């Protein structure tokens, strides 16, 4: 059997771009798919397609056209029912079609985590209208976290501190959610000490392995910076690993999972899960010999992962657009950003901007986490986006 596979990547943003690069390094043939032209992964793939991945007919058409060996979902907004049909026909869907479907919807994966597997989570409920949301919060209480059941990177998330703020939270969730569901999840607000991403790698031919825990900070429900390793006790980490293995074993397949946890004192709460590389995991580009993208591709292809070699405390900081523009942006400040020892810059190559859109990331490693975070922020602030 030939080692070279035809891989269809559904979602061509910055994470899909790095997955494509990892696949090309191993000689694979990649078709990148997204809803807009000139998406980052399309710039490095062998072929590309522009479709709405929520359109089942379009999705079926391109799968039949390209006849991939492997389908790699890189975003949530996909008509996942179609993936199950093609999985039944022998195409490897990463990690599985069921995992892609369950994690596309926060309600489905939360029910698996808490009700089926008994993982510790915040109390939660669902609402499909503003009136239902108002009634639900009487049980959950305030403050509470409100977010669409289908979104990515925290988009559409807000914290309501009173009954009067619910209408605004409902509007934010409805306008920012992905897909065709008008449904929100209402969560008990956990005043956590910190939150982490535990990258969990399910191998075809080896044991489940874990990347060192990644700390991160969010604004507007979206990741702003991350660092590795996150400081946590061995008992906290073991609880997180136990839960991560339990839920990824349930989902099955192979590949990397970004499993998020809240940590409060000795308690560890399951928060969310992505069956793919995680945005906070971009720090692994500089922190170790095998980034999350290379780990993902090795796991998908059944290649060995003998060890992960860490280079020391590392951090990432996002480079954000400050306005909406349909013009292709230009950048200045690269020389200043890269003159700091131990730093790297990744410009994603997105063809347009919107306010707070992630356009690049600054990476740094140093003798301490604090210094790495400082360096990555300074490098990110050195990059100026210019609009032609």
Protein described:
The protein is 32% helix and 27% strand. With 388 residues, it is an alpha+beta fold. It has 3 domains: 6-93, Rossmann fold (3-Layer(aba) Sandwich); 123-188, Dna Ligase, domain 1 (2-Layer Sandwich), CATH 3.30.1490.20; 194-386, ATP-grasp fold, B domain (D-amino Acid Aminotransferase, Chain A, domain 1, 2-Layer Sandwich), CATH 3.30.470. α3 (80-88) runs antiparallel to α4 (97-104) and α4 packs across α5 (106-116). The protein is globular, with a radius of gyration of 20 Å. The chain starts with 5 loop residues before the first strand and ends with a strand.
Tags for this entry?
27% strand; 20 strands; D-amino Acid Aminotransferase, Chain A, domain 1; alpha+beta; 388 residues; Rossmann fold; 9-stranded antiparallel β-sheet; 5-stranded parallel β-sheet
